[in-house]
Design the sequence.
């Protein structure tokens, strides 16, 4: 039983980690809470859904059949690209349309946070208007029996989630360490003024952060919708968990976002197992408060005195 | 004339930090700016390097000409492309990045890989303490080593003019002398230097010319040697 609990925790944890990573990449660069990240995540799922819906009126083909039929596979590839790239573009558009004008006016952080809530609600309502408030699904077809692995049962889809999100996390980490743009993004996160003094254009880095961070949110939204249903309000839970994971990992830290996500996923599932499923979200907040009180720097021990919301 | 600043007035909100200040720097010169705290020396460097606008400051009027062209209003990252490079007050190295990465970031705008790696060697030779520490995070360096890194990072841009704001801040006397000797060396290799300093005696020792600031104005300007002999300067800045 504990094996299954850990496996479930790990799977949902990688999704939290992806959401937290995207959130963190953006937070490090702009230094405010981009709450609308949650709705970008939802849009990723809806973009993919739309492609499948257009290709097959009445829901997409089952993913596990995609490997058998080349036509299915192509549609899925297109759908995933639409979701990931669409989300990336959406993040950039939000920045250019809403945050950039605020930056020009040197607005205080609270204004950015409020604007971000506004964007969140606006786009969420837009999703409701276009797709309706009801639950939709992009994982058509029967649920296949899972594989037995170290005492846990894991489905093909769950393996896919694990592999893809791990690969994305590692790829991001390598990019940030090795690529010139990744280094420049770290430089801006480290010291914005010093970054411009060496010739880095902060606006370009902000653009890259929104593009990459939002694409990660889109990927997370698609991955989760392979496992559960999609609905317009799905972004709220996602961003709350993403932010909690970022804070317990150590706000602004990339490894922190990864560990925080995994930690949160596993802790939540242990809680569900020991207490009850109804307490899931409560457990997340209890963990958050415990960290804020006992270890405000998070797992990575980030110094927070300079940070503000 | 490499840099020519005329009638510059700059303010932070209601605070006027510079009033009609004019100064210039010729190619190949080392020019120093000295003066008491709050006199406006850093503001002058910030205005030239474009940092002023990003730190709540504004240039109210005046001209800033670099190689004969106006550079007023250009952003800091654009000015780097023109050959103006700042080693800011308080070092501001990237503390979470390694020494090597800091230097690489210094060359961010440059595409010529071969000469970048040449300059990397040059900087590491100029500052031997950095050489064995290229893999170390910058936050693990001592203040003096961080100052070397800040100057080295600015040099990695291969600037036409190096602006240095209080490079001797927080350094022990031996180190101060060393840093200033390095400036002479950098200058001999062809880089023009504009220097802001609290340590007037060292600054005047190495500079060709100097400006004395007081409450937002330039009150004196002469060669470094003459200023060192000036009784007023001696009384106020050289502790004589
Ligand atoms: N960001 C700022 N906002 C408001 N006022 C500022 C700011 N920066 C500097 N000032 C004010 O502008 C004036 C000039 O400051 P500046 O930093 O140029 O002095 P300085 O000559 O470099 O002094 P120091 O030797 O202490 O570094 C001071 O009165 C200072 O209080
Ligand atoms: Mg100063």
Sequence:
């Amino acid at each position: 039983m504990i094996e299954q609990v850990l496996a479930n925790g790990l799977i949902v944890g990688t999704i939290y980690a992806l959401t937290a990573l995207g959130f963190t990449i953006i937070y490090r660069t702009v230094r405010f809470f981009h709450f609308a990240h949650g709705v970008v995540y939802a849009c990723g799922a809806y973009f993919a859904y739309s492609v499948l819906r257009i290709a097959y009126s009445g829901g997409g083909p089952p993913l596990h059949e995609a490997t058998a039929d080349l036509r299915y596979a192509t549609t899925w590839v297109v759908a995933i690209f639409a979701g990931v790239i669409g989300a990336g573009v959406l993040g950039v558009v939000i920045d250019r349309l809403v945050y950039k004008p605020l930056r020009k006016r040197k607005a205080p952080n609270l204004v950015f946070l409020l604007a971000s809530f506004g964007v969140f609600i606006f786009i969420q309502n837009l999703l409701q208007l276009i797709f309706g408030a009801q639950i939709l699904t992009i994982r058509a077809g029967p649920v296949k029996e899972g594989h037995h692995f170290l005492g846990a049962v894991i489905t093909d889809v769950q393996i896919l989630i694990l592999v893809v999100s791990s690969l994305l996390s590692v790829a991001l980490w390598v990019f940030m360490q090795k690529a010139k743009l990744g280094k420049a993004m770290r430089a801006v996160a480290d010291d914005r003024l010093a970054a411009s003094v060496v010739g880095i254009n902060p606006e370009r880095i902000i653009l890259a952060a929104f593009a990459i961070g939002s694409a990660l949110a889109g990927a997370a939204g698609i991955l989760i919708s392979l496992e559960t249903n999609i609905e317009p309000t799905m972004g709220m839970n996602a961003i709350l968990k993403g932010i909690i994971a970022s804070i317990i990992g150590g706000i602004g830290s990339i490894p922190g976002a990864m560990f925080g996500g995994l930690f949160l996923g596993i802790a939540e599932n242990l809680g569900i197992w020991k207490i009850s499923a109804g307490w899931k979200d409560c457990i997340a907040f209890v963990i958050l408060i415990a960290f804020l009180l006992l270890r405000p720097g998070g797992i990575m021990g980030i110094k927070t005195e300079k940070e503000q919301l | 004339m490499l840099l020519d600043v005329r009638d510059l007035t700059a303010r932070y909100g209601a605070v006027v930090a510079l009033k009609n200040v004019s100064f210039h720097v010729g190619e190949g010169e080392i020019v120093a700016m000295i003066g008491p705290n709050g006199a406006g020396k850093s503001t002058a460097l910030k205005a030239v390097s474009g940092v002023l606008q990003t730190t709540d400051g504004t240039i109210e009027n005046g001209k800033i000409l670099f190689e004969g062209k106006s550079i007023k209003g250009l952003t800091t990252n654009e000015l780097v492309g023109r050959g103006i490079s700042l080693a800011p007050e308080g070092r501001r190295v990237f503390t979470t990045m390694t020494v090597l990465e800091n230097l690489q970031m210094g060359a961010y705008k440059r595409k010529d890989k071969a000469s970048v790696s040449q300059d990397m060697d040059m900087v590491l030779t100029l500052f031997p303490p950095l050489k064995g520490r290229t893999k170390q995070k910058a936050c693990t360096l001592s203040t003096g080593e961080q100052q070397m890194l800040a100057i080295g990072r600015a040099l990695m841009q291969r600037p036409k003019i190096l602006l240095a704001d209080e490079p001797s801040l927080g350094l022990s006397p031996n180190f101060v002398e060393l840093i200033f000797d390095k400036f002479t060396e950098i200058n001999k290799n062809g880089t023009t230097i504009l220097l802001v300093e609290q340590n007037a005696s060292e600054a005047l020792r190495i500079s060709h010319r100097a400006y004395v600031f007081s409450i937002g104005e330039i009150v004196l300007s002469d060669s470094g040697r003459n200023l060192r002999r000036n009784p007023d300067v001696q009384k106020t800045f050289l502790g004589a």
Summary: The interface with chain B takes residues 180, 183-184, 186-187, 189-191, 193-202 of chain A (CB under 8 Å).
